[in-house]
Design goal:
By secondary structure, this protein is of the alpha/beta class. The protein has two domains: 119 residues, NAD(P)-binding Rossmann-like Domain (Rossmann fold, 3-Layer(aba) Sandwich); 153 residues, Rossmann fold (3-Layer(aba) Sandwich), CATH 3.40.50.720. The chain has nine helices and 13 strands. The strands form two sheets. A seven-stranded mixed sheet has the order 9-8-7-10-11-12-13.
Length: 279
Amino acid sequence: MSENFAIIGGDLRIVKLAKILAKEGKKVYTYGLDKSEELKNNANIIFCSSVNDAISKEIKAVIGPTPFSSNGININTPFGSKEITIKELLQNLQNKILIAGSISKDNYNMENQGSIKIIDIMQQEELSVLNAIATAEGAIEIAIANTNKNIQNSNILILGFGRIGKVLAKKLEALSANVTCSARKDTDLAWIKAYGYNVEDTNLLGENLSKFDIIINTIPHLILNEKRIKFIKDECLLIDLASAPGGIDANIAKKRNLKLIWALALPRKNITSNNSRIY
């Protein structure tokens, strides 16, 4: 593989990666990082005028952002002055390898046609677990900052028992919270019991929502709809960790005057702009 790389978009993690590659003597052709001051005045980092200009160099690997996109239209470019559409990037990737994270299945069409190879780093289990740790810690930080109650003895419901749900439950338990986890699958419900947490069936959520001080959603599907939100008590803090469209109906929560924080991409929250939205 070529010793040179193209880097398109990305947050501070990508900026640090570009510096590492440049320090190792590799040429790094960038687009969508023009607002990064620490990449300037580096002979091995070349700022290009377009996506095509960066990718057309003698390189095989193109590195993109993690997450790849937040809206399904543009790739994430917090350090770029111009938007870069997914379509524009993919159209310039003929015979290249794209390395990025959290890539939508819809973006794999070109790979299936044999023109490019896509590597989603978030499909690697070890990285996903480490990402879950950062997400869980970020969620706890948000909970502490946005409620007047101590985490200790608070009744906290975690919707979903995947990687993030498991890590989050363990950390909240260590803070002496009363942790309840919900899931749909019988195997997940059994594991929740095995870990010693309180258990709720997601399909049966209703009046039982009224007992919680904090509800944290990790499921990327609408779970807390109008029918269920009506049972949540007024002082309950809602935190949604799921990607768009989220698992909590923000419009209904706003009508109820509930405090909802939609916390996107927490692993990069402290190294770029705050990606949380408060409703």
